[in-house]
């Protein structure tokens, strides 16, 4: 069989490696951290930094196709690999999604609406942006934010410390977004193969707690027309990026059904973990199929479900969860349950179909 390289060794890399193994592929991961979640299932680990030239050459040598499991892979590393081997998703997807300014601009250029935003290069441009949004806004670092980190909120009630907020996210460059009074948050997991065929899974409704995804519920409580708009937006984005693989696109849904795209991740996505329990073909297998030139699998859902992330001490609930019927438990093999750390997830299937 052929060999798939995966840059990054976290739980997403682990689940990709499992899916790859099930289709008869070998996997090699590039990940500096020893004992990482993916190392327990991949055939081999190259333990080096993601931008290490020798390690990248070794990865290219060992693999037929190379993918990644996190969006902060150094773009130059992906581009260098792409000179020698197939790299999917294409490096342009990394370039765009690593920078919230480029991401918002790219979405808008595709005709996909977002929250109103304003580029912040200094305190002056932040003050100007706040005036545009009546003081109610969210400041986000352009790079490296995740799980709500690197963000600061402005209430517009006179209590805001503008310079302090900018300092709290590590200063500019940043973007300011108008605060969206959304009714709910949803996401779509979409896949595009090497020939340009696109398939999307049903829309998930996502609830966050302390900035971290807590649950994804499928189906989302949105109209069929809104769901269709979300799928169409994802398809536009995939085509514009000439994308190959699975992508997650997050939206805010307003009371009138208007969708505002928030961000996308050029990889399998936490809000798509339910697919392993409620669909014949999971997002992980779908990604492996897409990047390997295999036909995309069926995205149909056989059950309604709720995926719950197991974070930190939630891991202690596993013995009880295992007693529940129709609860599909998936653990990441992490030894230490630090607060805020994603340890696993459980998908509860509803016997409704
Ligand atoms: P992730 O872990 O999903 O990558 P992140 O750190 O990249 O998170 P966002 O997804 O941009 O950050 O924001 C985190 C959450 O903050 C959103 O899911 C949403 O609940 C809230 N949020 C972000 N932007 C806005 C906005 N403009 N208006 C209102 N709420 C927002
Ligand atoms: Mg994000
Ligand atoms: Mg997000």
TrEMBL record:
Pathway the protein acts in: Purine metabolism; IMP biosynthesis via de novo pathway; 5-amino-1-(5-phospho-D-ribosyl)imidazole-4-carboxylate from 5-amino-1-(5-phospho-D-ribosyl)imidazole (N5-CAIR route): step 1/2
UniProt GO molecular function: 5-(carboxyamino)imidazole ribonucleotide synthase activity; ATP binding; metal ion binding; phosphoribosylaminoimidazole carboxylase activity
UniProt catalytic activity: 5-amino-1-(5-phospho-beta-D-ribosyl)imidazole + hydrogencarbonate + ATP = 5-carboxyamino-1-(5-phospho-D-ribosyl)imidazole + ADP + phosphate + 2 H(+)
Biological role: Catalyzes the ATP-dependent conversion of 5-aminoimidazole ribonucleotide (AIR) and HCO(3)- to N5-carboxyaminoimidazole ribonucleotide (N5-CAIR).
Record text on subunit structure and interactions: Homodimer.
Pfam families on file: ATP-grasp (PF02222), PurK_C (PF17769), RS_preATP-grasp-like (PF22660)
Alphabetic keyword roster: ATP-binding, Ligase, Lyase, Nucleotide-binding, Purine biosynthesis
Family as reported in the entry's similarity comment: Belongs to the PurK/PurT family.
SUPFAM superfamilies (alphabetical): Glutathione synthetase ATP-binding domain-like (SSF56059), PreATP-grasp domain (SSF52440), Rudiment single hybrid motif (SSF51246)
Source organism per UniProt: Paramesorhizobium deserti
InterPro entries: ATP-grasp, ATP-grasp_carboxylate-amine, ATP_grasp_subdomain_1, PreATP-grasp_dom_sf, PurK, PurK_C, PurT/PurK_preATP-grasp, Rudment_hybrid_motif
GO cellular component: cytosol
Enzyme Commission numbers on file: 6.3.4.18
EC category: ligase
Name of the protein in question: N5-carboxyaminoimidazole ribonucleotide synthase
PROSITE patterns in alphabetical order: ATP_GRASP (PS50975)
GO-annotated biological processes: 'de novo' IMP biosynthetic process
Domain ATP-grasp, first and last residues per copy: 104-292
PANTHER family xrefs: PHOSPHORIBOSYLAMINOIMIDAZOLE CARBOXYLASE (PTHR11609:SF5), PURINE BIOSYNTHESIS PROTEIN 6/7, PUR6/7 (PTHR11609)
Binding site for ATP: 100, 140, 145-151, 177-180, 185, 208, 262-263
Organism taxonomic ancestry: Bacteria, Pseudomonadati, Pseudomonadota, Alphaproteobacteria, Hyphomicrobiales
């Amino acid at each position: 069989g052929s060999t798939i390289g995966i840059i990054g060794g976290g739980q997403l890399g682990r689940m990709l490696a499992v899916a790859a193994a099930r289709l008869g592929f070998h996997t090699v991961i590039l990940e500096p951290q020893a004992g990482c979640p993916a190392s327990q299932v991949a055939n081999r680990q190259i333990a080096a930094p993601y931008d290490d030239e020798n390690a990248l050459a070794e990865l290219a040598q060992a693999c037929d196709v190379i993918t990644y499991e996190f969006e902060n892979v150094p773009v130059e590393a992906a581009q260098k690999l792409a000179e020698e081997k197939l790299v999917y998703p294409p490096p342009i997807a990394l370039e765009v999604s690593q920078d919230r300014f480029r991401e918002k601009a790219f979405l808008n250029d595709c005709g996909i609406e977002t929250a109103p935003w304003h580029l912040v290069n200094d305190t002056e441009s932040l003050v100007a942006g706040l005036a545009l949004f009546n003081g109610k806004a969210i400041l986000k670092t352009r790079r490296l934010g995740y799980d709500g980190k690197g963000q600061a909120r402005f209430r517009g009630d006179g209590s805001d410390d503008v310079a302090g907020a900018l300092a709290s996210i590590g200063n500019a460059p940043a973007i300011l977004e108008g605060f969206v009074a959304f009714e709910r948050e949803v996401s779509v997991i979409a896949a595009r193969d090497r020939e340009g065929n696109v398939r999307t899974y049903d829309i998930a409704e996502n609830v966050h707690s302390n900035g971290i995804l807590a649950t994804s519920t499928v189906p989302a409580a949105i109209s069929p027309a809104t769901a269709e708009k979300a799928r169409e937006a994802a398809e536009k984005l995939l085509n514009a990026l000439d994308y190959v693989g699975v992508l997650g696109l997050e939206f805010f849904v307003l009371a009138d059904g208007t969708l505002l795209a928030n961000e996308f991740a050029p990889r399998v996505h936490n809000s798509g973990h339910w697919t392993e329990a409620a669909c014949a073909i999971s997002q992980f297998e779908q990604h492996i199929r897409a990047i390997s030139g295999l036909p995309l699998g069926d995205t149909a859902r056989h059950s309604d479900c709720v995926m719950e992330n197991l974070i930190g001490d939630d891991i202690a609930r596993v013995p009880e969860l295992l007693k529940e019927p129709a609860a599909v438990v998936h653990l990441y093999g992490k030894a230490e349950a630090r607060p805020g750390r994603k340890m696993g997830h459980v998908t509860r299937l509803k016997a409704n179909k």
